[in-house]
Amino acid sequence: MDPNNPLQQLLLRGLGTTSLVSERLRNVTQAWVRSGKLDPSQAPALVDDVLKALRGETPELEQQAERQLERNKDQLLQDLGLARQRELDELRGRLDRLERSLRQRTSSEMPGEIDIPD
């Protein structure tokens, strides 16, 4: 292993962290089984579910997290008083229609000159 290669370092740290979490999770579930907080038949399923989530093998959980993140982002933008792209696009469309209407009105009233204020 090359100590100057940050990608290798990151990969090894990630593997080590995953191993550590996996071992710790097994210890915790065994303690819960011993104390009666968890049914012995449920412990392996719990460990598997958590490890799948850590490996990114739970698309439904990822989709739920993405939806929650989107809601949080929308709420933050609203709290800050900022417009979303969709709202800006709608406003641009309305402005375009108003300008077109004003041009048509101006050209019908004063043929030859169109002066739209800024």
A few lines on this structure:
The protein has helices spanning 6-35, 43-55, 59-80, 85-109. It is mainly α and 118 residues long. It has a domain at 1-57.
Describe the structure.
The structure is a single chain. The chain has 118 residues and is an all-alpha fold. The protein has helices at residues 6-35, 43-55, 59-80, 85-109. The chain has 4 helices and no strands. The mean pLDDT is 80.
Could you name the key traits of this structure?
76% helix; 118 residues; mainly alpha; elongated; single chain
The largest sheet is: none
Count every helix, treating DSSP H or I runs of 4 or more residues as helices.
Answer: 4
Provide the low-confidence segments as ranges: none
Q: What average pLDDT do the residues reach?
A: 80
Specify the helix fraction band: over 70%
Question: Which quaternary structure do these chains form?
Answer: single chain
Tell the overall outline. Answer: elongated
Give the helices and strands as they follow along the chain.
Answer: HHHH
Ends: how far apart? 64 Å
